[in-house]
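Reminder: ligand-aware prediction takes two inputs, not one.
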Amino acid sequence: MITLKSSREIDLMRQAGKITAAARALAGAMVAPGVTTREIDRAVARYIRSQGAVPSFLHYNGYPASVCISVNDEVIHGIPGSRVIKEGDIVSVDVGAFKDGFHGDCAGTYPCGEVSEEARRLIEVTRQSFFEGIRYAREGCRLPDLSGAIQRYVEANGFSVVREFVGHGIGRKMHEDPEVPNYVEPKAGRPRFLRGMTIAVEPMVNAGGVGVYTMPDGWTVRTADGRLSAHYENTILITDGEPELLTDPDAKAE
Ligand code: MF3
Ligand code: CO
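Here is what comes back for the chain with cobalt (II) ion:
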């Protein structure tokens, strides 16, 4: 069942989203040679709690950290730890914050120093695919319009869209209906967008093939071919016009 949020609920989602977006900015600003993924996780968790919120991911289905940090060929759900980020890496950070009953969820991929031309292009195509998709995130359009726009843009640029993981409705729960695939998936149906829906749109894009697998840690998802992967996500509100981005892409680290 897809829930519609009231204006009071939307206000609470704006607040959760604001904290989540600032947390992403903080994580992105920390990406530098010599920094461990654990240091980013700690700082982000501290920031989220300082805002009176709770990290959404901590203990979610047993997830052991507050942030997902996925480096290079890691697609999503990388567990922060002793890994040291180095020049040339690309680092995907995914953060969620829960406040006053509502979640925000967003992600982005950040280059560490100088990265390859392919890496730069992958990051930019992944980000832009989100904006191509949300041109259809408005009342009257249908879910497959959004999914197809993301897929077309990614594939036209020679990259591939991950199939096993998808975006989602979001609100009182981090994962609500509908599922929001980044490719045309007939099984996802053709729900029509209505004002008051809140969804997390999150293309995961591989430089090489679509194949991915989960590591023995039970979480970290990597590309099967070992090539790079990038991620970009915002929580958005459907309106009768442009969608409202509840996790501001231009938020500043506080
Ligand atoms: N941000 C992820 C999503 O959009 C959730 C992370 S999974 C967790 O679905 F276990 F780390 F929480
Ligand atoms: Co999400």
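Residues 57, 60-61, 63, 68, 77, 94, 96, 105, 200, 202 surround MF3 (ligand 1) (CB under 6 Å). The two ends are 36 Å apart (CA to CA). We will return to this case in the review session.
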